[in-house]
């Protein structure tokens, strides 16, 4: 069974999502199905079919989240240190071509949010950064071609 790395923050977010699905979404869809059944002929009842489809999606989501949580490997980033980039690191980079600086935190796949500057451990840039240190230059294949970044700083927060 493959472990799913995630930060404590990511674990809590998934757990909150699971609680929402179980305590709010599931009862609401069960009520919607019961109400749609009262309308008679189920074969031509669009509300019933939509509610059943929604129920299938909710149950699938619950199973998927429970699986991820059961296989989770929660990593406390505050206890990590070192100069090499690894899971949980906040990395300051500079684009070698444009001199544009950027900051990314390497997180689990379910936590990735580019707008929040959180990138998945499985992303091309994160894979290129892993095990590198301050001063190293990494090349990343992007849709726009190969980009070179220099690592300016590695933080643990």
How would you portray this structure in words?
By secondary structure, the chain is an alpha/beta fold. It has 2 domains: 4-75, Transcription elongation factor, GreA/GreB, N-terminal domain (Helix Hairpins), CATH 1.10.287; 78-155, Chitinase A, domain 3 (Roll), CATH 3.10.50. The chain is built from 3 helices and 7 strands; from the N terminus they run βααββββαββ. It has helices spanning 8-37, 46-70, 124-129, and strands at residues 4-7, 72-75, 90-95, 101-107, 118-120, 137-142, 145-155. The strands form 2 sheets. It has a 5-stranded mixed β-sheet. Strands 1-2 form a two-stranded parallel ribbon. The radius of gyration is 22 Å and the shape is elongated. The mean pLDDT is 91. Residues 83-155 form the Transcription elongation factor GreA/GreB C-terminal domain. Belongs to the GreA/GreB family. InterPro entries: GreA/GreB_C_sf, TF_GreA/GreB_CS, Tscrpt_elong_fac_GreA, Tscrpt_elong_fac_GreA/B, Tscrpt_elong_fac_GreA/B_C, Tscrpt_elong_fac_GreA/B_fam, Tscrpt_elong_fac_GreA/B_N, Tscrpt_elong_fac_GreA/B_N_sf. It comes from Brevundimonas terrae.
């Amino acid at each position: 069974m493959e472990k799913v790395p995630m930060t404590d923050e990511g674990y809590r977010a998934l757990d909150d999502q699971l609680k929402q699905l179980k305590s709010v979404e599931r009862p609401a869809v069960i009520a919607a199905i019961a109400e749609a059944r009262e309308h008679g002929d189920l074969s031509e009842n669009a509300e019933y079919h939509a509610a059943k489809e929604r129920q299938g999606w909710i149950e699938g989501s619950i199973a998927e989240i429970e699986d991820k949580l059961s296989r989770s490997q929660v990593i406390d980033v505050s206890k990590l240190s070192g100069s090499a980039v690894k899971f949980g690191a906040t990395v300051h980079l500079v684009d070698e071509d444009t001199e544009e600086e950027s900051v990314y935190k390497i997180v689990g796949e379910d936590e990735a949010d580019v707008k929040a500057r959180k990138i998945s451990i499985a992303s091309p840039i994160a894979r290129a950064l892993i095990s590198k240190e301050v001063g190293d230059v990494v090349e990343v294949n992007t849709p726009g071609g190969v980009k070179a970044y220099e690592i300016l700083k590695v933080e643990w927060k």
